[in-house]
Every structure is written in C-alpha cells, then in structure tokens.
Amino acid sequence: QVQLVESGGGLVQAGGSLRLSCAASGRTFSSYTMGWFRQAPGKEREFVAHSPGAGMTIYAAFVKGRFTISRDNAKNTVYLQMNSLKPEDTAVYYCRYQDYWGQGTQVTVSS
Fold this sequence. Notes:
Elements: E1 3-7, E2 10-13, E3 18-25, E4 34-39, E5 46-51, E6 58-59, E7 67-72, E8 77-82, E9 91-97, E10 100-101, E11 105-110
Parallel strand pairs: 2-11
Antiparallel strand pairs: 1-3, 3-8, 4-5, 4-9, 5-6, 7-8, 9-10, 9-11
C-alpha cells in the first residue's frame, strides 16, 4: 500500500525559508514522477513542481526560481526547498504520486 507522509511545514515570516519533505513507502519510487501541489483557503489545488524519474524538473510559473524540488531515491523521499516565501504562498502543501496524495502540511507565511 502506497503511503505519502509530508512534514516540514510551519509558520514563517515573509522572506523566510522552509524545507518540506515527503516520505514515500509501499513502492520503489525512483523511476516515477513525484510532485508537489498546494491548496490555499477558498482556492483550488494547484501544481507547484514535479520531479520525474528521469528528465527535467518542472515548476509552476509562480515559483520563479524561489523553490527547488529534489529527491533522495535511496530514502524514497522528495523535498521542496522554498526560499523567499511570500504571504501568498500560504497553503496546505501536498505530495503526489500518481493517484496517491499525502495528508498535507500547512505552510503559513506572515507579512
């Protein structure tokens, strides 16, 4: 059974940084795309970034060089390093693998 567990969210001031982690289990993920999405209050869930098993990572336009997705295949873990955070980055951040989603981790950026 596939499980995705996010961690690393929290409260940070604008301009600060956070590093999210998504630990995956139940399968070997090294060959597969892992992604991050987010959902702000009252808004639809939106794509943030994904890391394919092979090939280039892809980012949403609003990331604009502030976020970096990476993965440690030996640990079945994907990360999202978020720098220069803005209040509009406030959302619940979710890890995704195919049709599987984690429970989400809250990121709150204060102005």
